[in-house]
Design a protein that fits this description.
The protein has two domains: 348 residues, no CATH class; 183 residues, no CATH class. 28% of the residues lie in helices and 15% in strands. It has 638 residues and is an alpha/beta fold.
Length: 638
């Protein structure tokens, strides 16, 4: 990507074309002085306590190329354990031959197996404005966004052959007046959202300083054995021929740079741009948070498919974008803009779809043809793209969440405090031990897709309050992760929270108000459950490992199925206080029939009775049958 306006370009460097760099350790290396002694510099910087990234991100300009002077170069320092930068683009030294060999073998395999359709897709995402490409992550809201933002592109398909010249995105001649590339026009109905995207992708968000600092070659300049060999020949297009089996998409051959010294691979600029745009859109439209993160990872993968970048390049782009997006969104100078962009997006989409803040999420996930409609498929696709060829090494250490990172979840989990959002990021983070991800502040360990599904563990007691009157996620949300830890959960407020994971937290569950939905048999963890108020609802049978206590006014809402086990199984004792309520629903597909006796609660012992037992049926009523260790209901006709 070109240097942003106003940034200087480093002085000329050695551009020798004949080189052999062995990643296997046996071939002789071309001797060259290093640009900076990375590990020594990092150690020296550590002694002077560098500023947190979010406080120092404006140092990312091409005049600053060392970890001491550039915050982005500093957080990408994990790569300094893999690759030692040389004085020129072709004089670097591999420090981890195993990683770089696996990197190139992966690229060779992917580009060799690429289909024609994948190649065409890779061309489109190479040439199309990255902020426009990310709009596809909005799913059913995508077309509405494009029209509302007046966002357009001229790159919609790939040519059949190699274009004779460079192709750049532009506003089509027949586009409506006021149309704009990328995220759209600032004067449109979604102008604040477009401005937010451009702000996140602002003057300090370029990948060029990192490229110049690391000078790691692109994969098409290296062969499958991870060697760079210039044959001295040129191809029919005039490009140097390297002994390389990384196959670039034919349509992109003339889109490549002819200046290796100004065209480093690490970090990937397109990847950086995709993720920056995705997190800006996700802040404004959190109803599509996970799908936008998934699309950013998917489009970044096309950089490898195209042959233009390698896995380490893409990982570097994701790391820097995560940190840069957080820094920009956390910057007080952007506080008013980000809030206004979120409000504008919500008002626009609810107005266009006839929804409310409470129902927009459902509309945003209503299209079965949405390529990101399947959350589980998204999770499976995303997981390997967070680490690619990296192998985890050593024992994992807990993550200290980087300062300001919690802002990335500010609109997705608005009912949590900043400290709680940091806990969500910490408990859903990747383990340590992945060399590229373990740089300064370890931004690469953040797993935003998983974090959007709530806590990964309750390492201390968690109290959460959802206020239904505020709408959106504050009215109802779901935590889908499998939650562990020694702590417990207390649910307060009028909103509804669904726990859908196979949870193992041991500190117990307390419901004080609102609705708590058990969306999995083991949703309520391994501790005691106490209902002091509100409604606990379960559509399928639930198991409780501890005791169950239900106070006055609290409602247990269960669904009865034909020929099924008890709807609630409690390992310990059940105590029902006077004034407690049991509300029963008949399963729409497998309802029990009149005259049958259906088990409801099974426990080691049961004390007390419900003040009333309700059944949602016009034709049947439920007659409770209590025993010393449980409760059944006999269904009789009214």
């Amino acid at each position: 990507m070109p240097s942003p306006a106003g940034q200087s370009t480093p002085s000329a460097v050695n551009r020798r074309r004949f080189l052999k760099v062995s990643f296997g350790g046996s071939a002789a290396l071309v001797a060259a002085p290093t640009l900076v002694s990375w590990l020594g510099a990092a150690d020296a910087k550590a002694a002077t306590a560098p500023l947190p990234f979010v406080d120092d991100y404006r140092t990312n300009i091409t005049a600053n190329l060392t970890p001491e002077t550039n915050a982005v170069v500093r957080i990408l320092g994990g790569f300094a354990r893999v690759w030692k930068t040389g004085a020129a683009w072709n004089t670097g030294t591999p420090l981890r031959a195993d990683v770089l060999r696996a990197n190139m073998q992966y690229c060779t395999a992917v580009t060799g197996a690429r289909t024609e359709a994948q190649g065409r897709e890779a061309f489109v995402h190479d040439r199309q404005h990255q902020s426009y490409a990310m709009i596809g992550g909005l799913g059913p809201l995508s077309d509405l966004y494009k029209s509302g933002a007046k966002a357009v592109t001229s790159i919609t398909s790939a040519p059949d052959t190699t274009p004779p010249t460079k192709i750049d995105d532009a506003v089509p001649a027949d586009a409506p007046a006021g149309s704009a590339l990328g995220a759209g026009s600032y004067t449109s109905d979604l102008g604040l959202v477009a401005r937010l995207v451009d702000t996140v992708r602002g003057p300090y968000a370029s990948g060029n300083p990192g490229k110049y600092a690391f000078q790691y070659p692109r994969p098409w300049r290296m062969n499958e054995n991870s060697e760079v060999v210039d044959t001295g020949r040129t191809d029919a297009l005039g490009f140097p021929v390297y002994d390389s089996k990384v196959v670039v998409v034919p349509q992109l051959l003339r889109q490549r740079s002819t200046s290796p010294a100004d065209d480093g691979g690490f970090p990937s600029g397109h990847t950086n741009a995709f993720h920056l745009a995705s997190l800006a859109y996700a802040y404004a439209v959190p109803e599509r948070f996970q799908e936008l993160v998934t699309r950013a990872l998917a489009l970044s993968h096309t950089r490898i498919v195209s042959g233009m970048h390698s896995t380490v390049d893409v990982l570097g782009g994701r790391i820097m974008a995560t940190a840069l997006a957080a820094a920009t969104l956390a910057d007080p100078a952007n506080a008013e803009l980000k809030a206004a962009a979120r409000a504008q997006a919500l008002a626009y989409f609810t107005g266009k779809t006839g929804t409310t803040a409470d129902t927009l999420f459902a509309y945003a996930h209503s299209d079965a043809s949405d390529p990101y409609a399947d959350r589980e498929a998204n999770a499976r696709a995303n997981a390997p793209r967070l680490t690619y060829v990296l192998e985890r090494e050593g024992r994992s250490t807990p993550l200290t969440v980087p300062k300001g990172a919690e802002v990335l979840l500010e609109t997705r989990l608005p009912y949590l405090t900043a400290a709680q959002r940091r806990e969500v990021l910490r408990t859903t983070a990747l383990p340590s031990g992945y060399v590229l991800l373990d740089g300064f502040e370890q931004w690469g360990r953040l797993d935003l897709f998983t974090a959007a599904d709530g806590y990964g563990a309750f390492d201390s007691d968690v109290t959460v309050t959802l206020d239904a009157s505020r709408g959106g996620f504050e009215a109802a949300d779901s935590w889908r992760n499998d939650i562990g830890g020694d702590g417990g959960l207390t649910k307060r407020g009028s909103g509804a929270l669904t726990l859908s994971g196979h949870n193992r937290y041991r500190g117990g569950t307390v419901l004080e108000a609102g609705v708590l939905v058990a969306g999995h048999e083991r949703a309520l963890g391994r501790g005691d459950v106490r209902l002091d108020g509100g409604t606990l609802r379960a559509g399928e049978p639930v198991r409780v490992r501890g005791a169950w206590t239900q106070g006055a006014g609290a409602v247990l809402d269960l669904t009865l199925h034909r020929y099924h086990a008890p709807a609630l199984r409690v390992s310990g004792r059940v105590r029902l206080d006077r004034g407690s309520v049991l509300s029963l629903r008949l399963d729409a597909d497998r309802p029990p029939v009149a005259g049958s006796t259906v088990p409801v609660i099974e426990a080691s012992a049961l004390r007390g009775q419900f003040d009333r037992v309700e059944l949602n049926s016009d034709h049947l009523r439920a007659v409770p049958v209590y025993t010393a260790d449980g409760l059944s209901v006999r269904l009789v006709k009214r």
